[in-house]
Structures are given as structure tokens and as C-alpha cells.
Amino acid sequence: MFLFRPAAAQHEASAASLRVMATFALDWEIQVHVLKRRGPTHEGLVRLRSVPGGLEAVLTPRLQMPSRLIATREGAPRDGTHHTPARPTSFGGARRALWFTRQQSMLWAALLLPPGPDGAPPSDEALRGVATWALQFTPRVATSEEAVLLELEASARLFGGKRALRDRILQEGADQGVSALAWATNSLAAHLLARAGIENGFKRPLEELLDALPMRALTAVAPTRGSFPDWGAAPWGMCAGSPAGV
Known about the structure:
Elements: E1 19-25, E2 29-36, E3 46-49, H1 53-56, H2 61-64, H3 66-70, H4 91-100, E4 108-112, H5 124-134, E5 141-144, E6 147-151, H6 162-175, E7 180-184, H7 187-195, H8 206-211, H9 236-240
Antiparallel strand pairs: 1-2, 2-3, 4-6, 4-7, 5-6
């Protein structure tokens, strides 16, 4: 019998004879940390190869070890892990976080899927389908609400450069049901720009593009639409500069 618990439970007592914690690593691996076992304490990590069967035959040697491509970036972790900053909780905090990351050498794409016939968000199955398709371009793929997010800076040159990669994703993405595409230096900005129908997050300074977005692009504003129907049309920059947005 196996019991799955959150990572925070690793410090709690347990009668189990074997306790392990599994995490994903960048190089198509699962890292297993043995927390408890019979016998002496196990130091270090057990690394298990975990490449999807449909991709192993088509991955190039470079894409099989993406950490080696990313490790040349200044400040990039060299242990194959990827750390995501905590999501800001306020409009002003989110705006400042996006400004802070605008100088990073990253290329994020957000692929939006259309809602269902009844206006419901796209299904998890549809999101997983697009995410699996996107793994041919980069192992750094995630889903967020109605979007699939990809980090492509390290792999763009493997597909003929950023312009050729953009054209390919745009063309093949349409066959996968993608309704909107946007690019920016971080995933949250790309997601918001895609919602607003703005594809190129590099044509002007990122803060200018974000300041012009309507507040309704933010998920946190959705619960207020019934009470404040006009607020969603207000520019983000104006609201972020108000005392309530700080």
C-alpha cells in the first residue's frame, strides 16, 4: 500500500518503514530522496530516468540534457532544478514582480485554449494534450488555468532561431486548438498578454504593455465583475498606482 502526502509532511512522524520524497528534475529525471528506511540513513538522491516513451526516440542529445544548455546563464541553478518565484498576492506586487523579471534572458510563450461550448474553461485533457505536444520544443512546460506555458530561450536555436520557432508553434498550435499566442520574458506576462490579444511582449518595454492592459485580464478580478462591472476595463497601470493596488 502506498500513501501520498504533501512535501510539508516529510518532517512529521510516521510508522511507515519506508518514506521517500519524489521531485521532478530538468533533465527528464525523477529525483527520489529517501527520508526513512530500514538500516542506515541514505544520503543523497536517487535519480531515475523518466522520458515519455513517445519522445525518447525524437529527442536530440542536447534536449536530453537541457540543464547543460541553461547552466551557462548567469545565476542559473546547475543541479537540474528550476525554481519558480512565489505568486504575488496584490496587483501592485504582481506588477513590480513582472517589472523585476523583464531583464532576465528568458523567452516564455503562452498558448491559450478556447473555452468550451458552454463557456467553461478548457478541460484538463485538452490542456494535457497541448502540453504533451509542446514537449517537442522544450522540457520546461507547464499549464496554468486556460494556458500552456513554455520556456524556449535555450532551445530556440535548435529550431532555426526565434522567428522560425514562433512560426512553427503558431502554425502547428492552430492544429492543436490553440486560440491565442503571446511571448514575453516571464510566464505571467505572456499569459496576460495572450488574454489581451497582444502577441509580441518585446515590441515595447514590458511595463508599458502591462500598464495598458485592462484589469479584467487578471484572474483575481473575476469575482468582482458582478459588483464592479466597470472596474475590469480600467488600465492596470492606473489601478496599480492607486493606494489599493500597492
